[in-house]
Predict the 3D structure of the following.
Amino acid sequence: MSKPVGDIALIGLAVMGQNLILNMNDHGFVVVAYNRTVEKVQNFLENEAKGTKVVGATSLEDMVSKLKLPRRVMMLVKAGPAVDDFIKKLVPLLSKGDIIIDGGNSEYTDTIRRCKELEAKGLLFVGSGVSGGEEGARYGPSLMPGGHAEAWPHIKPIFQAISAKVNKTEPCCDWVGSDGAGHFVKMVHNGIEYGDMQLICEAYDLMRSIGMNQEEMAQAFEEWNKGELDSFLIEITRDILRYKDTDGKYLLEKIRDCAGQKGTGKWTAIAGLQYGIPVTLIGEAVFGRCLSALQNERQIASKILPGVGDIKFNKDKKKFTESIRDALYASKIVSYSQGFMLLRQAAENHNWSLDYGSIALMWRGGCIIRSVFLGDIKEAFDKDPKLTNLLLAPFFVKAMSRCQKGWREVVATASELGIPIPAFSCALSFYDGYRAARLPANLLQAQRDYFGAHTYELLGKEGKWVHTNWTGHGGNVSASTYQA
Ligand code: NBP
């Protein structure tokens, strides 16, 4: 039998898998390629991988026999049962200390379960977030690996070589933490991506509503991309706005306003509810897509429900565009603060020791949310690793004080004009709520106690739960106190 040559095996020859293999090949690694539909292996070798060192496998046994020890097997297949199916088939073929990596968009709870199951079998498991789409996979993705830490030294050289680099040398990839930490961080990344996209869409909707043409909008985005909003999503928005169809007309205007989604934003919002962290902007971004999908109902309602009448925009367009930029930046700061709050809470619940500066660096390049802004976030965490909330970092306090006037003007004007801006406005409400020393939850507690004897604490006597017989004819027995 010939000596195994494969540094790593990759299962799943769809867009992500093929591109990641070619990226690994470019960096000198020998990849063994395999796919459920085996014919795709030969096809890949004869086309995209022609002239490379990529080796094909005709079965899982063949694939495993071609790998150096410890064996490293990475899957990039559809998340869900496909991952479990492959794990089941791989386990009898692998030996103690071998490594299985799941690079798909798996739910972090599945990754936690798989880590436990494989640990019992002596195998190492890594759940890694991979971001950057096709282009990222080919030329440098952001990689967020987590799971069994013993696997990290064996995969680090490959992962850090193929990942995107900030300042040409700093890899957008580092070890995130144990069990599901990598996939959790990737999930929050995707949630933040939903938020960023919604904010940009609201900015576009405002610009359109105040009568800017598409070239004017593109110019605004181009300008914004030179400053603190410099990011991949702003850049592609500029290009999308300028893109003309074969008939010379703008393509964007012809696209149905009905958004799709694959689930990771929803998972982030659900995690926010589970961990009790108000990731309101991500939640609104998910609901914004749901509302857009009710297009038929909206068409009907648009003819029935009254709006604001003939109130017209009568401000200076140029100045108002600057206010939109401030609203976008301030809302983005809120969204990322909420995302990092969720990471912090999950880390506490799962005992993950997350390095928030390092996570910001992982997102700084290669992935869809890559931006200059993430460099500022990294710096804030580097300066104060114990920072309780990004909003409290001096850099962002300053930004908020500079942007809030324009932000408030945008929210008020949009409300007057009847333009929906769920993300801008919920971000502002969160900001005002977070900075409020007093909220009306005293009344809420009183209501709960009134109808359900749920008890409340008195100011200055925290920890002592009391019940009032509000009506005079209720009992004095209270319900037990617990947090859902
Ligand atoms: P897909 O998500 O479309 O998955 C295609 C691969 O899954 C093929 O290899 C296919 O095999 C295999 N597969 C399927 Br579908 N059902 C299977 C089953 N029941 N058992 C075994 N294999 C099965 O590919 P992708 O877009 O390259 O994404 C791969 C992973 O990376 C996914 O988890 C995705 O969420 C994640 N991801 C995608 C992107 C992106 O931009 N596309 C970005 C980041 C992460 P077959 O050829 O035999 O049908």
